[in-house]
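Progress against Task 2.4 (sequence-to-structure conversion) is shown through the following example record, which the project officer requested during the mid-term review.
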Amino acid sequence: MPKRCRCNKMCPTHLHPATLNTTLANSFAPVFADIRERSSVAERFIDRDLYRVYVATLWANVVLSPDEVGLLEEDLEDLHDLLLEEISDAIGPHESLHPVFQFIASKAGEKAMAEARLTQSHKDLLEYFASMILDPEGHKRYMEEIREKQKR
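Structure tokens generated for the chain above:
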């Protein structure tokens, strides 16, 4: 039986990895179902572009604030694996987060974000994450330039 933390809830810091994966799967199942429902065109057809926008949004938000969903930073790897399984099941086995963010950075991604009526700050967030994932070194240089400009 998994240990419990002082708050008497199942705490990821006290769970065995197999239990953590099951707990993550159970915790995120409603989120994955909601993403599929929101991106469904008909009962069994998913708008792949809209699905990618929602998955990118989920990942960006969880990475920014894992504690808000009850995760520790080290739990992100397990969630990443779970998310890859979900993406593969929903839109195909050749998808992963890298192509999702390549899509976000493309003209088709811009179009999908516009059709989804995302706010500018939401689009900026997804584009920021796309730059981190697709070109980490370039992103690092860019952020260093911004920091230098702020110091002046």
